[in-house]
Amino acid sequence: MTIQIGAEAPDFEADTTEGRIKFHDWIGNSWALLFSHPKDFTPVCTTELGTLARLKPEFDKRGVKLMGLSVDPVENHTRWGDDIKETQGFAPNYPMIGDTDLAVAKLYNMLPASTSGDANSRTAADNATVRTVFVIGPDKKVKLVLVYPMTTGRNFDEILRVIDSLQLTAKHRVATPADWKQGEDVIIAGSVTDDEAKTIYPGGWKSPKPYIRIVPQPK
Prior knowledge:
Radius of gyration: 20 Å
Strand order of the largest sheet: 5-4-3-6-7
Order of helices and strands: EEHEHEHEHEEHEEHEE
Shape: elongated
Number of helices: 6
Number of strands: 11
């Protein structure tokens, strides 16, 4: 079973490049992005880690903590960071979990529970399913799950866009339409009756169909 949206993110303790953490305690009252990689010193992941480091100020603005995971030792992550800085211009500026016993990968259903063997003897292909993004809210619930193939680099601008939507819709009873971006019109949630909507939006709304109620993005 994959981890479902709305489920509690499994808690764990792990060694990272910034010391040992207990995941839920580390999240605290923030949002969190947990993103995994099948192996250190792999080309696509090298570009992803550098891109995420470059974009970290954007995640900081949104109160989102970043946590990476790779099924390799922490000391390898540190050496890989030098390569990432050299080739991408930015070194990882967030903690990376060393998941050598595969415990977190299995806990998050990225590898079958029956998986065994030493991480050092496993190839990127063995860990191909460890290519997942989890966005977790301050309530420790999973808000988003994205799974990528090894050959496709992740689009972190899209992940930021989704986080903007998640944070907006957590505060207001609205939904965001296709390709929505910060500042654009939104849709009144279906759970809001017309009578409630009149109170929340006394200026009214555009309604091309009775079930589509469009309003400016709430502040």
